[in-house]
Amino acid sequence: MQTTRVILLRHGECEGGNILRGQIDVALTEQGKRQMQSVLCGLKSPGSTPDVVLSSPLIRCANLAEEFALTQGSPYAVEAAFKELNFGDWDGQTFDVLYQSHAAALDAYWANPWLAAPPNGESMQDFEARIERAWQAMFEQHQGKQILLVTHGGVMRHLMAKALGVKQAAGFYTSLQLPYAAKAEIDVLHDENGQQFLTLHWGK
């Protein structure tokens, strides 16, 4: 039996204001940088430092993740599959503008995002399958280690739902509040048959 600890960290506040922020590549605000640095500072103490740092390639995650890894001497890698969901034509637009022209479609999407993808975007099924493949690939390389994964709210919500054994629950995406720079931890126990048993630590 072997245990892997995955520390999930959401990026901080971003530039652009109140927009639907999927794969549009926007930088952190100064406040967002401080939010992440505050959490990362807590990972510098003995026993808390990750063995490896992984990050979404989007700059709101990658810039500070790489900087942290360099200062700690931890191996660092960008993992493209841990990007946020691609909202297609909706990506990067303000919610005010979206609701002026796409209110019905947006309401239907939030109610059950598995029924229809955003126009020219990624379906929820494809998004979750992408995260699942990346999750398994991560353990092929880093099983038994303490991993810091700097990523996005949608990715974290899916992995938290996975840890709790919940599938296709819209509330995880619409009602689970994840503030900027939110941190959660998932312990993964691997047995001799390759099965994984997940425990979620939230609010530490």
UniProtKB/TrEMBL annotation:
A single GO molecular function term of this UniProt record: phosphatase activity
Region forming the signal peptide: none
Entry's Gene Ontology cellular component terms: cytoplasm
SUPFAM superfamilies: Phosphoglycerate mutase-like (SSF53254)
CDD domains: HP_PGM_like
Active site: residue positions: 11 (tele-phosphohistidine intermediate), 84 (proton donor/acceptor)
Domain of life of the source: Bacteria
Record-listed substrate binding positions: 60
Name the UniProt record assigns to this protein: Phosphoglycerate mutase
